[in-house]
Amino acid sequence: MLSYIVNRLIGMVAVMFIVATVVFVIIRVTPGDPAAVMLGPDAQPSDIVELRSKLGLDQPLPVQYVTWLGQIAIGDLGQSIFLNQPVLSAIGDRAEPTLMLTVMSMLIAVAIALPIGIASAVWRGSLLDQATLTASMFTASIPSFWLGLLVMQLFAVKLGWFPVAGYGGPGASFLDRMTHLVLPACVLGIVNSALITRFTRASMLDVLGDDYVRTARAKGLPERRVVLKHALKNALIPILTVIGLTTALLISGAVVTETVFGLPGVGNLVVNGVLRRDYPVIQGALLVIAALYVLVNLAIDLLYLVVDPRVRY
User: Within 10 A of 101 (CB to CB), how many other CB atoms are there?
Assistant: First the structure.
């Protein structure tokens, strides 16, 4: 087990190096000059040159790349050009809305997908099963920003049940902040429940026809116990895999939803960084998101040991 974890951590370092390289190259080839954006359209060329020199943007790309890798190695993601604060601090200040949104969205997605997927597999071919397949295909094709605008218009503007946008003021209570997250969490939860539903159904169908399930039924065990204890337990590996993948996608995919609902999260930070050509913020945020993605996958792999004792690393 220890050797497996060490090997995975080494692999994570290699993956993060590749991600860092790709992010650096993509950002540098993107049109736009941060110095020109900061100084505005009326800036003199000499002022732009001076600011580029101050920010180190006039250095050759290999020098910028090596400098940035050296900073990452010591845990320094650089200094935000516009926010005038360390990138790691800027991400930390905005981490709470994104993490809470991800957790709430994942709980909603699982609460929707697991019961529906299990019922669809148990009553395969029924009207419920056909409705589940149709609804999951439809839900998966809905753009999150479009659904967000719809629920905002209905539940926030017309009915007034929830706040329209934002994350509460500086002195807002925890309950108030969670209230602001209900609508965006429901949007992300509904959209991402489709994939989990289909995987749950498929995984349950694979095990419901196995011999041990037929034996359990032949012994006269209640159907609920057969399905939930015997079948579901052995179908959890693929379900956990897709839940882990969905969780990682939620972290990186919250950008659009945070923008629609005006949440001051990491996604909003990335959007503003792109608009302002704030290289350090974009690079640092994407690197942190990639690291979380890899860590979630590692956590799911280790969770396999708890779910299925037959798994060995």
Answer: 28
